[in-house]
Structure formats: C-alpha cells, structure tokens
Input
Amino acid sequence: MELVEAIILAVLAASTPLLIAATGELVTERSGVLNLGVEGMMIVGAACGFAGAWLTGSILVGALLGIVAGTLMSLVFALMALGLAVNQVATGLALTILGIGLSGLIGAGFVGERITPAVHLHIPGLTDIPVIGRVLFGEDGFVYFSVALIVGVWWFLYRTRAGLILRACGDNHVSAHALGYPVLRIRTFAVMFGGACAGLAGAYLPLAYTPFFIPGMTAGRGWIALALVVFSSWRPGRLVVGAYLFGAVTILQLHAQGWGVGIPSQFMSALPYLATVIVLVLLSRARTGGSTAPAALGTVFVPDR
Output
C-alpha cells in the first residue's frame, strides 16, 4: 500500500505542470490562437520563479514571478501574431527558442543552488488516513490550484457570457467582429492567460517538484501540454484525464527502470513522448465528421474597420 501511495503521489506531482500549462493553452486555442511557444514560456517561468524564491525565500514570490515572466513572454507573441499578423506557427516556434536562451541567461547564476520546496498541507487525522489521506489532504498548493483552475476554466467557457464570446472568436472571428466584439483584444487576454499558466507551470518545477534549477528542466513538457489540448478535443474534462494519464506514463517508466525491467533506459525515457505521438495519430484516425478544433484556430485576423 505504501508503494501504491508513493506512485499516486508521484503521478499527481508529475501531472500538475502538464495540467496547468495545458489549461492555459486550451483557453488560448479556444479563442482561435495557436501558440506553440508553451515550452519557451515554461522554461522562462522556471528560471524566474526559482530566482525569485531563492532571492526572497518565498515560494509565493517565486510563483508570482513565474506568472509575470510567462505573461510577458506571451505579450511578445501577441504583439507579433496579433498586432503584426505574423504567422502564428513561426512566431510560437521562435518564442520557444527565445525562451530557452533567455532562461539560460537568467538562471546561469542559480545553477546548483537549492531552496526549501513548497510546503504540503497537513490536517491532523485526515492526512494520516492510509493511501487517500496524503493524496487528498497532503499535497502542496500548486496541486490544489491546478484542480481549481480547470474547474474555473470549465465554468468560464460553458457557463458565462464571456466564455461564449471567447469561443465565438475561435469559431468564427469574422462574425464575432461583425457583432461588435473586439476580437483582437479578447485573443490578447486569452494569450496572456495562457502565458501566465505556462509560467506558473514552469515555476512549479523548481519550486515544488525538484527544489533546484537546471537549464532545460522543462524537458519537453510544453510540447506534451500542446498535445494534451488536442488529445482532449479542446474540452476541459478530457484534459484532466489526459494530463494524469501522461503523468502516469512518465512515472511508471521511472519505476520500471527501478524494477530492473529489461528494456533500454533510453527507450523508457522516450516513452512519454512516444505515447504522445501514438495517441495523436490514433485520435486523428478515429475522428469522423470533421475536426473538433475551433474553426478559426491559427487563422490570422485583420479587422477591416
């Protein structure tokens, strides 16, 4: 039972950054914008978050700096892709390259340093319940926030007028503009929200997952978050399932290596990314009746008046 509990806790920890980053990207893509710069925003958020926490001794300050860093990176994307109508795919890829280089510059002086990780909740009596106690009542604040975030996004998208307008911009920006809605402004806010989530997801890695910073510590999680949005068919509920599924694949491949499974470690390390590719291929073959993606996703919009 202790092993089962340890695996579940590890899966939750590995899934949290995926869930946070993918939730932000889901909102961005629902507005009709394809931002492939999630990896770049995450790694800059990780560097700035760790720097802030190390300098101030506060995990909260580090998390806020991660959010600010991701938001500022997303504004660069918004300026290029929305303000100047540059190709969104090319801009997102450039943002990732910029983020990787910028994070190395910011974090160069903090490599090898350590901090005290985020504290975990402890409720006497409840946290001590076997298996479910630590899972439900013994996690850090990032895990609980990720759950609240996805619930809030679901409520916003499907239960509010603002969410309906945002989805309208993603499905038909011409009609939304004709009705008088500021499409570019709405998309800019959606991009900023996605950037803030990506920055927080990146900051989670050195603040709670591993209490130190190393270059490239996101290790492709931003790309997996992008794939999760497609996996979920742009629906928040399915996104939760996908995030924990891929988190489980990541953790189980680590345990398989510890158990001495006779498979090359390089293949086991590549397993989460291989699973991502396989799932996307199967989804594309299984879909009938057209794509479930927002109809205007990735399409440049230039107001005519």
